[in-house]
Amino acid sequence: MLKDHIDKYYMEGNYNCAETVIRAGNDYYDLGLHDHDMISYGVFGAGIQTGNTCGAVIAAAAILSMKYVEKKAHESEDIKPVTLKLIRAFNERYGSILCKDIKAQSFDREVRCRKTVETACDILESVIAEYDSEKAG
Predict the structure, then answer these.
(1) pLDDT averaged over the chain?
(2) Which of 47, 56, 61, 103 sits most deeply, having the most CB atoms within 10 A of its CB?
(3) pLDDT surpassing 90 at residue 137
């Protein structure tokens, strides 16, 4: 499971939510990202450092892009519908995709946003499985 990869980054490595999700996703889905590539996700933690869109949501969407876009997003028939599923799932779970709203529901001083990272992994895996199943017919 994707969430089995988070503790080495979030708890042990002290990465933020976005960095953790992209690194765990890189491991689990064998995305081929290099460490230098994943550094770019640091800014997305804490809702792009402003409480805006949750970094875990952004990293999950990036994983969808790596899985479903071959070269350009606008040439992919998959990226929009699968991303809509992702955003809807976050909205169903938290009522928002904003860090400030999600954090209010799941932040814990001991483990910070670990619960959100775990939930993001569960949502992402579920969305991918559902979308791939629907496509396969």
Answers:
(1) 97
(2) 56
(3) no
